[in-house]
Structure prediction request, 141 residues.
Amino acid sequence: MTITTPATASTGTFTPGLSFGGGSTGITYLEQQGYYTQIGNVVNFTLAVYLSSKGSSTGVASITGLPIAAGPNGDVNCIPCICSRVTFTTGYTNAFLELVNSSTNATISQNGSAQNDAALMDTNFANNSFVLCSGTYLVGV
Prediction:
């Protein structure tokens, strides 16, 4: 029998942000909080982003500044999130993060019954939108 030493855990905080189409012009926040624990190649995190202004950038909504880059298969990680004061496109009811491969960013998408997944856009957000997410992803695999 082989006994292995458990992986050590590291914990910390991070500052998540929001971007639209890769830009963050004029975005201001009431709150930006992030906490994480990494054990081996597994990262558990919680983040909260609360806007006071969505700014003027346009395009696909993304969370930026995750604490550790996702692995090269990051896009297989779909993590449910709560979006408040966000207007979903007709037929869509839920939001989730889809991690970008080998990146500290994640796109915010929407889904619903009998609908294909679709990215949330700047037009879905308001100046007081709130995103809350807690989940797990893999790094380096």
Summary: The beta strands are 9-14, 17-20, 27-39, 42-54, 61-64, 78-86, 94-99, 106-111, 118-119, 125-138. The CA atoms of residues 118 and 128 lie 22 Å apart. The two ends are 27 Å apart (CA to CA). The chain has a mean pLDDT of 92.
